[in-house]
Write a structure and sequence with these properties.
The structure holds 2 protein chains of 2 kinds. Chain A is mainly alpha-helical. Chain A is 57% helix and 0% strand. The longest helix of chain A has 16 residues. Chain B is mainly alpha-helical. The longest helix of chain B is centred in the N-terminal third of the chain and has 34 residues. The chains are: A mainly alpha, B mainly alpha.
């Protein structure tokens, strides 16, 4: 298993994908925080995980 | 039926349910993330991922059926967030994205890569290949969202919550002994990792991909590392 390659493809590749329109995102986030108070949205007491393969 | 065929049929049936749940989760999270981060590419990635997961559900269910275990899937129903109640909407979305994509989809990708290298039967290989092309993107969208949230605000709150995500990811038997009748070569041919290999992939992926990735984006991996040491009997 080439974990180093997985790190590059998934983690670094994901960060690059997320960088699209990052500055627009920051502005939208600031506006969003200003107008909306946080609302409780979780549904479990301590959180859970997601089963996979 | 051989032990490997029976175990593989059960594994593929389980995967069909996992993929169905993932489709529901990604559809729901796409709407939530779009609500607070309209400039993000992640919601569109999630909507496509939901379609992928529906296709994977069919592929996994068909394979389980051909191995002798027809799968009766429940119709799509609403699915609740797995995030702790104390988190607000945005934090809860990040929690779920990290649990579902950064951890589970990354682990799935490592599993698929290992299975593809193990010379599975041609029919199984075709399914693994089809699914693995999509799972790369499903893992990436988690890291994409975490990187954006890291740049936009506070993500350190996740660190003490990582052990709960990890505990909910694994089967109870992952760190136990394999079944007495386990047939490792037969399992690999049918697209299932023997227990020892499954454990190695899980540990290696956490230690070399997930934990460094979390750390890169500002989430302290130490609580997760401590959990892993205890769970695996190394701590």
């Amino acid at each position: 298993m080439q974990f180093k390659k997985l790190f590059q493809v998934l983690v670094l590749g994901g960060a690059m994908a997320g960088a699209v329109a990052a500055s627009a995102c920051a502005q939208a986030n600031a506006a969003d925080k200003a107008k909306k108070p946080p609302a409780d949205a979780g549904t479990t007491e301590s959180g859970g995980g997601v089963k996979g393969w | 039926m051989t032990s490997a065929r029976r175990a593989a049929a059960e594994a593929w049936a389980f995967r069909a349910r996992v993929e169905q749940e993932a489709a529901l989760r990604f559809d729901r999270l796409a709407a939530v993330v779009a609500g607070f981060d309209p400039g993000s590419p992640v919601p569109e990635m999630m909507r496509r991922a939901a379609d992928d997961e529906r296709r994977h559900t069919e592929l996994c269910a068909q394979l389980a059926g051909r191995l002798g275990l027809p799968v009766a899937l429940e119709p799509d129903t609403g699915q609740a967030s797995i995030a702790p109640r104390s988190l607000d909407e945005r934090q809860a979305a990040l929690y779920e994205v990290v649990a579902a994509c950064c951890i589970t989809e990354t682990e799935s990708m490592a599993t698929l890569t290992t299975l593809m290298a193990a010379e599975p039967d041609p029919e199984v290989r075709a399914v693994l290949h089809s699914i693995s092309r999509d799972e790369v993107v499903h893992s990436r969208m988690g890291w994409a969202h975490l990187s954006r949230e890291s740049a936009a605000g506070e993500v350190a709150f996740l660190a003490p919550l990582i052990p709960g995500m990890l505990a909910g990811t694994i089967d109870d038997g992952l760190f136990g002994a394999p079944p007495a009748d386990e047939d490792p070569e037969g399992l690999l041919r049918l697209g299932v990792l023997p227990l020892q290999q499954k454990r190695e992939v899980f540990l290696g992926t956490l230690e070399q991909v997930v934990f460094p990735g979390l750390e890169k984006f500002g989430v302290d991996p130490e609580p997760g590392r401590r959990w892993l040491a205890r769970a695996s009997g190394l701590g």
